[in-house]
Structure formats: structure tokens, C-alpha cells
Amino acid sequence: MKTKISSRILALLIDNVGIYALIVGIFINIGKDSTFALRIGSLIFTIYLILVPVIFKGYHFGKYMMGMKIVTDNYNNPSLVHIIVRELCKVIYTIPFIGIILVLVSNYIMSKREDGKALHDIIARTKVINV
């Protein structure tokens, strides 16, 4: 059964706002300037995005809270390579102008596909499932 787009967006918000903002906020609160806090926060968050689903068998905190997890096309736990490819593919969403178009295309594809895969899932051979 495919996951709802709204659930995936909420999981993303939980991770981005909850985890990333918490990391940046901690560094600002201990007296680091905002540029440093954003850079180190981005580095730590990138490590989180790659290592956490490998260590915790497909879960990010946001996906766990929403009852979802990342699996391979064969329903196995994702390997480090799967997650690295998946996250690197998401970099295309940050390209000015093109990125927003690709996000919209990815969401459209996700809504039309029976398995609910986004562009980065198709490329990485992963999918997000309800658990």
C-alpha cells in the first residue's frame, strides 16, 4: 500500500524542522555565529539523513513518527549505497528554478504511481511503505 503524500511531507517537516532546527538552535545557543551553526547543522543533518536509515533499518525520526519506513524494491532494509544514492538524488531539488519543477514532477509521479515512488526512489530503487 502506498503512503500518502501528506504523510511523507509531514515526516519531512518533522525531520527538517525538528532535527535540523534543533541542531542549528543548539549551536546558536552555545554562542556560535549563525553562519557556523547553519554549516555545521547542515553537515550533521546530512550525516543523520544517510546513517540513521541504515542503522535503524529504514527509519528517520519523521518517518517513524508517521508510521513509515524506507525499503528497497525487494522490501529489504536499505543499504548505505541505497541511502546515499537516494539522498544525492534529492540534491536536484535544490537547483534554482529547475528544482521546484522537479519537486512538482516528483510529487505528480508519486501521486500517479501505484507504488507511490518519487523520482529519488525510482533512481535509488527504494520506496517508502507504511508499517
UniProtKB/TrEMBL annotation:
The chain crosses the membrane at residues 9-30, 36-56, 91-110. One of its GO terms (cellular component) is plasma membrane. Residues 5-124 form the RDD domain. It is found in: Cell membrane. This is RDD family protein. Its main location: membrane. InterPro entries: Pra-immunoreactive, RDD. It is a multi-pass membrane protein. It comes from the Bacteria. Pfam families: RDD (PF06271). It comes from Romboutsia ilealis. Keywords: Cell membrane, Membrane, Transmembrane, Transmembrane helix.
